[in-house]
Description:
The chain is mostly helical.
Amino acid sequence: MCVPARIIVCLLRNDLRFHDNEVLLWAHRNADYIVPLYCFDPRHYLGTHHYNFPKTGPHRLKFLLESVQDLQNTLKKRGSNLLLKRGHPEDIIEDLIKQLGPVSAVAFQEEATKEELDVEKSIKQVCTRHGVKVHLIWGSTLYHRDDLPFRHISSLPDIYTQFRKAVETQCKVRPTNQMPEQLKPLPAGLEEGSVPTLEDFGQQDPLSDPRTAFPCSGGESQALQRLDYYFWDTNLVASYKDTRNGLIGMDYSTKFAPWLACGCISPRYIFEQIRRYEKERTANQSTYWVIFELLWRDYFRFVALKYGSRIFFLRGLQDKDVPWKKDQQLFDAWKEGRTGVPFVDANMRELAMTGFMSNRGRQNVASFLTKDLGIDWRMGAEWFEYLLVDYDVCSNYGNWLYSAGIGNDPRENRKFNMIKQGLDYDGNGDYIRLWVSELQQIKGGDVHAPWALSNSALSHANVTLGKTYPLPIVMAPEWSRHVNQKPQDSGAAPAKRGKGPSYTPKHHRNRGIDFYFSRNKDV
Length: 523
Ligand SMILES: Cc1cc2nc3c(=O)[nH]c(=O)nc-3n(C[C@H](O)[C@H](O)[C@H](O)COP(=O)(O)OP(=O)(O)OC[C@H]3O[C@@H](n4cnc5c(N)ncnc54)[C@H](O)[C@@H]3O)c2cc1C
Ligand SMILES: Nc1ncnc2c1ncn2[C@@H]1O[C@H](COP(=O)(O)OP(=O)(O)OP(=O)(O)O)[C@@H](O)[C@H]1O
């Protein structure tokens, strides 16, 4: 009797890589033929939920198209291919099932949020109708969901530190999966389809801005190169903790986020490379701190599992009644970088021009929007959703809730002081002058508060407040304490706090993580 060939369709979404790809590996072990599939889902290109910004902006779209192309090239080298389709995955999968005859399973990596889970539900319905098995794999986080040391996801702590300590002491990161040299082939008769262009989506190439902190392309190959650069070629990872609050250039932080968001790099692979680096070169607070940050990423994904759609609710996780405003004029000034507060404006212009903003910048502009302007935090979250090249639904909404004071921040009423932050992290004002050309002629840290300058200083710098550069749309009383404070050191944080960016790589002695925790309070 002839046994029918086993065909498995692998729907790839945010796992656009070959290395450590459990979906492809499972299919390889269980099928005679594999159909790796990527769908350009039109729902990703509509408007955001409340404020109708384009859901996927040009920087991220470009990055995504490059990532898809890179994966298709890699899979071809591995005896496979990537089928590219435009449409709803559930419809495309149904068509494939009809076209291919008996499909034994559809496999994909699970997501955590409503829109993605709705797609999964529709795929399951299609598969049930056709008697096809669905195989789900959890793979987006460093720690596997099933290894968490909590009886049920509802017992996930609401405080990050408690989560981190529990996983660090009670769980192990699973090893990466060894992939085969060659994958099982595609069945005959399928057309691969070509990668669409930005114009196909009605968008234009966002020309690269020479000032960008993220001048990289999408795709697994680029992600792996970046890791080699940051770890092995330059040892930048060994000074990450000292530089991570920087604002200018490629090297102050890993820049892994855009690749992690598309799944071009596996967090477990990063983890293994850190461990290898620690063994072969040096282990210090910085090498540990990359893992510490990756755990934030895990945490927000698990928070989304715990709270479901509540991560998108106006009242947040805490069900807090905050009288948010929806003032369009104030919001427009924020999003266009013309609030009259240089530190905010520089960051918002960088985001619009490049699709990237540093973590320090994101915390500040989010605090400014929600705490200084009192604007509906979802306006900010949706603006980021539109523009960020590294947009990740859980990290974005989780961080916005946190910044708005209705998420996982245990501290009450945390608010950043824009002037103090500007002086702490951009003491000499170089970052402001990079993005706010109107203020280019104001020297040093004075550029953080142009309204405090004398008329003669302003006219000397060719600045007319209210004309060439706006007056601040809001003024917080606590700013005045810092307005005349000169930075103690150009580009570096004031020594007393010792936490600003230092661009000189320091090679720490490995004093152990326990030593570290006995000295530092957690965020
Ligand atoms: C309001 C706001 C919105 C944000 N939106 C996103 C988003 O959509 N996508 C996203 O990946 N990050 C988001 N972040 C977190 C953080 O700003 C970015 O991950 C980081 O700036 C990306 O640069 P990097 O890869 O060089 O980070 P690094 O400093 O090199 O950190 C290494 C990795 O750790 C993870 N990480 C670091 N900080 C955080 C954090 N606070 N939360 C979750 N993961 C973290 C990221 O995966 C990052 O790639 C947001 C932060 C804020 C305050
Ligand atoms: N992946 C995602 N990215 C962005 N937003 C999402 C995602 N998944 C779900 N949401 C949003 O989560 C929210 C909650 O969805 P739900 O259907 O429960 O509420 P809703 O009734 O649509 O909300 P509202 O009453 O505010 O219009 C919606 O705003 C939805 O668009």
